[in-house]
Each structure stands twice: as C-alpha cells, then as structure tokens.
Protein 1
Amino acid sequence: MTIGKGRQLDEYQTFHREMAASWDAMGEGGPTLAALAALCARALVRRLDEPQTIDPIPLSAEAMAILYKARNRGVIEVRGVKTAFEAPGRLLAVYIEESEHQTVAFRSREFPEITIKFFDGFCELCRAGLILHHLHRDFTLSRQGFEIARTIDPLNIQEPLAMATEFGLHDH
C-alpha cells in the first residue's frame, strides 16, 4: 500500500509545525516550567491524601532564603532572560515580588552555580508542597509556605540572602 505524496507532505508539515511549537516552548522554558507545575500538583494531591504533619521539613539555605524573601506577598516568578548575551544570563531563575514596587532575583551571570542552587532550592519548595503553580511562570507560596516563611530568622540565612539582586518591579 502506498501513501500519496499529498498525505506525506501533510504529515511532514504537521511534524515541522509541532517541532517549531516545541522549539518555541523550549525557548521560553516550557518543559521545565511544566515539570515544576507537575511537582507542585503532586505535592498538592499528596497533601490532600495524607494527614497534615507538624514535622519540620528539611530545606537548604537557598530554599529558606526564597521562602523568607517571599514571606510578605508570596508572589514568585520563574523565568529566563532570552535576550541576554551570555548563556548564564539566559538561565531560568527565581524572581520574587517583595513589594508592589520591589523585585528580588536569585541569579548571577558571573557565577551560574548561584542561579542553579537557588533554582534547585525552588524545586525543593515545590516538592515539599510549599509552592503552588498558577499560570505559566507564576507561582505563589502555599498556606504552609507562608506559615513557615514567617518563622524564618534571617540571621540564620545571611549568606544566601546576600546573593539576592534587588531592583524596581519594572527594571528587569
């Protein structure tokens, strides 16, 4: 049985449209953001299925710094800067709205490991159920995330807090 050239062309064009869409999504961090959303969803379902515990959750210093900075508004965005010239500047990083006019970023173009450590800390928070995913790049603290964040003593996490870059909300 042979397939007509028209059908082959349609399948070829469909494949390339799908690949182009996938490529565009990857350029926006789509697969990683989808994975983070899935981590948050799994933690949410797990919390609904299991009784609440009051056991402390072991977290890295980077995760604690993210919680602490997000304690007031709880609004977190994970994004990269596609237009950055150097690769470390394009990495996905954690941005936190400290206030209506102030944002904090945990990223370093000079030392990419800093960006990676804080991104990993954010993943910890997602797995622990302390973060909720909303839309695309938008996340917030969960109720438990707010509760824990407000108990953190900044003196215990001075080093990771010093790695934050602060700027006005529309300066990024």
Protein 2
Amino acid sequence: MTTYIAEFRAVHKLIQVIQHSVFTWQQEGGEIDSDLLQGKIKRESAMHFYKLLAGDSYEVAMEDISVEISKTEPFNG
C-alpha cells in the first residue's frame, strides 16, 4: 500500500466559503483515478467541512460541492 497526498479546493454552490486543504489516502500502486478521488474527498472531507459551516440552518447536499485537485504525490510523512 502506498500513502498519497492531494492538494485540493472544494467549492459549494451556495455557501460562499472555499475549502483549501490537503487529503491523504492509501491505495495499491497504479494510476490515481481522479473521479474516484474527488468523490472520496467530497464524502470524507468537504461534506463535513460544509456541514460544520452550515450548522442546522442548511441541508448540505453532495451534489452542491465541486472538488478541484491541484496536485497529488506519494506521501512519506
């Protein structure tokens, strides 16, 4: 298993805050599937970030979040 790190930016279509962050994950070697990674970041990071911001005032939907991955590389930290 190799550990990777990705730098990403998440944007919600209504909440006017942009999440700039990094995300680590493990996978067997091979190519990184960007679509799969974007979904993983949405589920495991961005959804929680936007739910925290919205509190009880707004229902956050995954379809309202877009993720742009800037860079990925193996992580040895």
Protein 3
Amino acid sequence: MECKPSEFQRALFFSLMLVWFIAMIFGISEPPIVVRIVASLGIVLGVTTAWFGLKQIFRKGPTLIINESGIYDKRLGVGQIPWTAISSVSAFKTPLSNKPLIELWLSDESTYVSRMSRRQRMAAPILKANGHSPFVISMTILTPGFRSVYEYILRFVPAREP
C-alpha cells in the first residue's frame, strides 16, 4: 500500500498559500504601522510554512509505504521499520484538530530514535512522558485515508491494549 498526497490536495495547498501571500502583500501597503508590521510577520510565517508544506506535498514517490516487510514513512526518517520490530499499534485523535493519528509501539525504540532528525529526537522524551509513541503516522494529507491504512496495519500487528 502506497500513500501520497492527492492532486486535489496539492492544488488546494498551493492556492491557499498564494491567496495568503497576496493578502499579506496588500496588508503591507496599508497606512497604519500596526497593520504593516502584522502583514510583514504574516509574510515571514507564510513563506516558512509554505516552504515546509511544499516539501511535504511535492515529494517524489509515495510518502508512506506499507507492505509485507514493514512500514516506511519518509517523514520519520528512520528507514523501513520491519513488522518484527513493531510490538503493537494504536490510534488517537489530536485534542485541537480532532484528526486521527497512528502510533507505532516498537520493541526497541532506542535503535530507531537514534536515526530520527534532531528535532524529532528532542520531542521523543516529551511524547513518551505524555503516554505517546515517538513514531506517529499522520494521514492528514495522504490518500487513502486513515481507516484503510489502520486496518491494513492491523493485519500485521496487534492493537495496543489501553
């Protein structure tokens, strides 16, 4: 099973970022200095967000590959995680956006945490302290959706007991 952003999502993201950028440019030309400052900050934040978003959306090939040998999520940066290394899987919804996420619970997490990016390695202990796995798969911009991917994963590993 290969998961990647749909063409519609790519077009929608690009359109929204373009509208955001145009609105901020018009905001810079407004007379009150406060509006200009806020618009300038909006441009900086918008360009930064667009950069990271575009990197995710326009990746070459699938973002997530799930097959008989394991899970490979390019966003995690740890390479393929074989099914034998995954002890269980769970799902939870984020408190603010109410979007479902898939958590992978590994038998030897330290091996895979050491392969993560510096930012992800710094977040791992915080996630563990809050009862979450550092290996989280978001299906927000990927197709097929959460349900089909979660059910496919459950064919290979058991669900985590609450």
